[in-house]
Design brief:
The chain is α/β, with parallel strands linked by helices. Helix content is 31%, strand content 22%. An eight-stranded mixed sheet has the order 2-1-3-8-7-6-5-4, sandwiched between helices. Helix 3 packs antiparallel against helix 4.
């Protein structure tokens, strides 16, 4: 079982962002309907302000991703289910890079690809463009530093200002029963570990001027998501919350592949999508930092 976390805004306001698809192109940014279930109608603006702000404050967003019914939620084939998510649309070049390029290990590629797509869509609502800057193995660090999953370039389409932020992706769930609530002690342990890792990698990265980081937590039920938020607000020291945006996303029926990826699932998904490791060799021009 892996567990993770969720910060909250300094004013303790929390928002539920619901992403759902209105057509078969589930993860095509043009067809995803991103709506807020919150009294905070300025949520997207608050997110952008936090990213471009010089302050070290933290922000927590509670979010939810719903399947549009196209995905086979009863499938025990993780690779097939992952591919179903992309029926009718083309994977972006950035997503192909994340899927095809090796990471530092662990069965977490599906969750990282979907995290990138989720974040890209979330920011697009505020006239901001998100692109993949460096993958996990393209980032370099000072000796002894923790590492993060990938780095993003975020550009304000109106002001043309751009910043680089890291993204650490994790999952909080019970492998044997996705509907069960993860224990408070497990959440606290893993949240503390992940937040400390975020701070370490932000300070230690050498080839990306990270402004701050997003900690994206996938979880399999709403009860766990709410408990993550409560643990963050009440059990976690302030010094390891700073300079971090936490997204906690509930992904229930239709997204089991997020949590149960294993073995050769990624290579099989690549084959089903007609991709190979050579497809990862996209031009990745060095940014002038």
């Amino acid at each position: 079982m892996t567990s993770t976390t969720t910060p909250s805004t300094t004013s303790s306001d929390s928002c539920l962002l619901k992403l759902s698809s209105s057509s078969g192109s589930t993860f095509d940014s043009e067809s995803i309907n991103c709506s807020l279930k919150s009294s905070d109608t300025t949520l997207s603006d608050s997110l952008v302000e936090n990213v471009f702000s010089e302050s070290s404050g933290h922000l927590c967003l509670l979010t939810e991703w719903k399947s549009n019914g196209v995905v086979n939620s009863s499938s025990s084939d993780n690779a097939a289910q992952f591919c179903d998510l992309f029926k009718g649309c083309e994977l972006s070049l950035d997503s192909k890079r994340l899927l095809c390029v090796s990471n530092a290990g662990g069965n977490s590629v599906f969750s990282e690809v979907l995290s990138f797509e989720f974040i890209k869509q979330l920011f697009s609502k505020s006239n901001v463009t998100v692109s993949l800057f460096k993958t996990e193995m393209e980032l370099t660090y000072a000796e002894g530093s923790k590492i993060t999953d990938f780095a993003l370039k975020i550009e304000n389409n109106l002001t043309k200002e751009s910043v680089f932020i890291g993204c650490s992706v994790t999952r909080c769930f019970n492998f044997l029963d996705l509907s069960s609530t993860v224990s408070r002690s497990s959440i606290k342990h893993l949240l503390k570990k992940k937040l400390e890792g975020v701070i370490s990698s932000t300070k230690g990265v050498l080839n990306c001027n990270m402004k701050k980081q997003i900690l994206h937590v996938w979880t399999s039920n709403s009860a766990t998501a709410e408990l993550i938020k409560d643990v963050f607000e009440n059990d976690i020291p302030e010094d390891i919350k700073s300079n971090t945006i936490v997204l906690v996303t509930v992904a229930e029926s239709g997204f089991e592949c997020l949590f149960k990826e294993r073995g050769d699932d990624v290579s099989r998904a690549m084959s089903m999508l007609g991709l190979s490791s050579m497809d990862a060799a996209f031009n990745n021009e060095e940014e002038s930092l």
